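Why should sequence recovery work at all? Because a backbone constrains its sequence more than one might expect. Tight turns favour small or flexible residues, buried strands favour hydrophobic ones, and helices have their own preferences. The token representation captures these environments compactly. In the example below, the structure is given first.
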């Protein structure tokens, strides 16, 4: 049930690759070892006018990708480090960004606090 929420900072003229959400879902599903239809991606475009970094002029601001990951039980230790590195590389490549500007945030475990169709994730 992994769910990724992806926000990509873009110039107003920058086009998002067709089916980028699907490509990210496929890559993440392979990394997670998910069965078909079990890794979901929500993709949002964040215009540069809506993004800033302190003391950095707008034209010098990098265009990062922010990724939130919700899993029933996130990995820990070496498994988490491997997963983060693989996700950053894959998502960066698909978005045309270096992995250094792919920022990944893991949500707390979904088990017992997230419901689908009125049923808690167990």
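From this structural description, the recovered sequence reads:
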């Amino acid at each position: 049930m992994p769910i990724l929420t992806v926000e990509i900072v873009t110039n107003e003229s920058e086009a998002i690759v067709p089916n980028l959400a699907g490509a990210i879902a496929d890559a993440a599903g392979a990394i997670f070892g998910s069965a078909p239809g079990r890794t979901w991606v929500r993709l949002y475009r964040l215009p540069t006018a809506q993004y800033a970094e302190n003391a950095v002029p707008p034209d010098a601001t990098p265009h990062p990708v922010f990724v939130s990951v919700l899993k029933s039980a996130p990995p820990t230790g070496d498994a988490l480090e491997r997963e983060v590195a693989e996700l950053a590389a894959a998502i960066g490549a698909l978005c045309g960004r270096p992995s250094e500007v792919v920022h990944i945030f893991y949500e707390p475990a979904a088990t017992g606090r997230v419901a689908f169709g009125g049923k808690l994730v167990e």
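A few observations help interpret the result. The mean pLDDT is 95.
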